[in-house]
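To: structure subgroup
Subject: Chain for Friday's discussion

All,

I'm putting the inputs and outputs inline so they're searchable in the archive.
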Amino acid sequence: MSVEPTPAIANPSAQLQVVLKWVGGMAKADFATLESVISDDFIQEAYPVNLGIPTLTSKSAFIDHLKQILPVFSNFKAKINEVIDAPGKVVIHANATADTSINFDYVAEYIMIFTVAEQGGKLVLTKVKEFTDSKFTAGFIGALQKAAGGGAQ
């Protein structure tokens, strides 16, 4: 796992530090870290909606979903190219690469909009809107389905 150091994340605000912990937790499949930085009512929305990826509406739903997906990855590397940091919101433009156990060349690009709030005396993520490269993501979902025996769509 790695989150490549870039000028975009050189001097992170407190809320960007929470986002970076989330990115690192995703890259390492570190569920304890992920659970520590998201709220109980955490929401993940995936875009574009025509990909048909369901919205996850709780911490437990999000973590359960990741426990099915993240073990496919190894050598995950993320690079954050740009950050927009405003009160209660962090937007990142990122790229990621990884090896996969399903022999799919994982080279992804994202725009993520995080909502950050103070809960229980600490900053947590309450929502993420994840915009992905739709052509790449559709291919990856098909490869996952094929590997699971469901066939590619």
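Points worth raising on Friday:
The chain has one domain: 2-146.
The CA atoms of residues 54 and 142 lie 15 Å apart.

D.
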